[in-house]
Amino acid sequence: MQHLEYLVCECTNTGWTTFKSCPSLRKAYFPYTSAIEFNVFANCSNMTEFYGPNVTKIQNGAFWNCQKLNRFSVSDVSEVGDEAFYLCKKLSSINFLSNLSNIASSAFN
User: Fold this and answer.
1) Which domains are assigned to the chain?
2) For 47-62, what is each residue's pLDDT tens digit?
3) Which pTM was predicted?
């Protein structure tokens, strides 16, 4: 997957580390996925945008080291795991709705 730039995935489950270390990935759209699992996009250092309108859970390290991620859109996340956004230096804000019940203390370290 070294040359994947734009990804539209109609899957309901991402699986662990599925797109990990894919440097060419820039944008991802997951319209039917409810959980972004462990390290799915970890080290996708050029990823700038993620859209997941049905995502309710973001697991540990899901976007770890996505240094250029600056657009992140989800609807109603209830859980955010450890280091989910670790080293996401360009990410300046995320709006979580009232359903957020658990956010790990190290989610944004």
Assistant:
1) 1-109 (3.80.10.10)
2) 999 999 999 999 999 9
3) 0.90
